[in-house]
Design brief:
By secondary structure, the chain is α/β, with parallel strands linked by helices. The chain has 14 helices and 19 strands. The strands form 6 sheets. The chain has a 9-stranded parallel sheet. Strands 2-6 form a two-stranded antiparallel ribbon. It has a two-stranded parallel sheet with strand order 9-11. Helix 2 packs parallel to helix 4, helix 6 runs parallel beside helix 8 and helix 12 packs parallel to helix 13. The longest helix is centred in the middle third of the chain and has 25 residues. The two termini are 16 Å apart. Keywords: Glycosidase, Hydrolase. InterPro entries: GH, GH_1_N_CS, Glyco_hydro_1.
Length: 479
């Protein structure tokens, strides 16, 4: 008997800006990712105000899901997906974010995608904003630093809710909203890069701008949630946190406190606002000590209280350590690095692999909030190479996923209300952090490469058939 609930939502996750392509087709405007060049683990991607001749902008074609969605969704159905987490490209609906009327061709595209999902018995899980802010809003308002974006986002949500009210039940307001507390995340999530031209890793955004922009997102999210609860009671609205689990490197009390502060700022702050409906006391102290003076409008605090989410979702890839000592070895990670854990191994990109950390994380989240949880991103980015038989034998990916699913099962036994699992990049796509294709996550291999070549054909990896078996057994058969 499986420990996972009978209606557990097995599936996979992708993001519009990383796999749709067709960046200027059928009236779509340009978004922040459309201004990002490709990069690698050692050569960071750049953001350019103007498109440079000869530069490669990987989101422009990506894997062209826009023209391959029927084929791709059929492959997801073959694996047995119960749900598919995808996102909507804001600039397909409002090319600059400020049009008087939405773009009908953009709306019709997502009608086709959701209808195709439903035909195959797949429940869409839709992220409303996943790193694809209209670039016109960056130029005019410096992204979410401008209060004007609150009403523009809510109007965008209202259009989506009404159009897809009979096709989509589960919505996430913002992807990895807590990445806005970090410099690179402020580019991806907040779009606070007005006039910036250069490597994404070099941008520096002040605490004042960053947290003001986050406040605007909190208000926008809460308004959208409250509106949906009032007008579409069948909807379930969730948040989405990039959970970067960290541990104190030593038992030095200074390390314990340093790690607690890291966890509060990086992981708990945003969800405390979105789940509990108010700013936590520890952030009020942080603001005072860092010179942050949030500008709130009358009624903002009441809006936050009313617009709390129904369920909690997270991405989980890795963990790291925190220390106050100078002799520790540093290691990279997803948005936020840390100190090396001597008990863990790392991926090709230096992300420390920690399946037990997922169990720990799920328990901590559930103990704090007591609402249903869904792991909406998890996976191993690797350099998949075809074997002599022309196939991808990705036993390393299977091993990674097997260990994490096993720890999810332990968390369920511990009492965590876990509602679903959608591994990241279920089909190969463009990496958000590095802008490359070589960092592959998918069960499905796409013939597309970092120089822009490739025929975009799709092939099943060994992990495709393994995950198919996992879903069919509701997580019991992990061999």
């Amino acid at each position: 008997m499986s420990v996972f609930r009978d209606d557990f939502l097995w599936g996979g996750a992708c993001a519009a800006n990383q796999f749709e392509g067709a960046w200027d087709v059928d009236g779509k405007g340009d978004s922040v990712p459309d201004h990002c060049t490709n990069g690698s683990n050692t050569n960071p991607k750049r953001i350019t105000v103007d498109f440079e001749p000869g530069a490669l902008y990987p989101s422009h074609e990506a894997i062209d899901f826009y023209h391959h969605y029927e084929e791709d969704i059929a492959l997801f159905a073959e694996m047995g997906f119960k749900t598919f987490r995808t996102s909507i490209n804001w600039t397909r609906i409002f090319p600059t974010g400020e049009e008087a009327e939405p773009n009908e061709k953009g709306l019709a595209f997502y009608d086709r995608v959701f209808d195709c999902c439903k035909k195959h018995g797949i429940e869409p899980l839709v992220t409303i904003s996943h790193y694809e802010l209209p670039y016109a809003l960056v130029k005019k308002y410096n992204g979410w630093a401008g209060r004007e974006l609150v009403d523009l986002y809510v109007r965008y949500c209202k259009v989506l809710f009404e159009r897809y009210k009979d096709k989509v039940k589960y919505w996430l307001t913002f992807n990895e909203i807590n990445c806005g507390t970090m410099n690179m995340g402020a580019i991806l999530e907040l779009g606070a890069c007005q006039g910036y031209n250069g490597p994404c890793v070099d941008i520096k955004i002040s605490d004042q701008v960053r947290f003001q922009a986050l406040h605007h997102q909190f208000v926008a999210s809460a308004k959208a949630v409250a509106y949906a609860h009032e007008h579409y009671p069948q909807f379930k609205l969730g948040n989405m946190i990039c959970f970067i689990t960290s541990y104190p490197l030593t038992c030095d009390p200074a390390d314990i406190l340093a790690n607690q502060s890291r966890m509060q700022l990086s992981n708990w702050f945003c969800s405390d606002v979105q789940v509990r409906g108010e700013y936590p006391a520890y952030m009020r102290r942080y603001f005072a000590e860092h010179g942050v003076q949030l500008q709130m409008e009358p009624g903002d605090e009441e809006i936050l209280r009313k617009g709390t989410v129904d369920f909690y979702t997270l991405s989980y890839y890795m963990s790291n350590c925190v220390t106050t000592h100078d002799d520790a070895e540093e290691i990279g990670g997803n948005m936020l690095g840390g100190m090396k854990n001597p008990y863990l191994k790392a991926s090709d990109w230096g992300w420390q692999i920690d399946p037990m950390g997922l169990r720990y994380t799920l328990k901590e989240i559930y103990d704090r909030y007591r609402i249903p949880i869904m792991v909406v991103e998890n996976g191993l980015g690797a350099k998949d190479v075809k074997d002599a038989d022309g196939k991808i034998h990705d036993s390393y990916r299977i091993d990674y996923l097997r260990q994490h699913i096993a720890q999810m099962a332990e968390a369920v036994k511990d009492g965590v209300d876990l509602m679903g699992y959608t591994p990241w990049g279920c089909i190969d796509l463009v990496s958000a952090s590095t802008g490359e294709m070589a960092k592959r996550y998918g069960f499905i291999y796409v013939n597309k490469f970092d120089d822009g070549t490739g025929d975009l054909s799709r092939e099943r990896k060994d992990s495709f058939y393994w995950y198919q078996k996992v879903i069919a057994s509701n997580g019991e058969d992990l061999d």
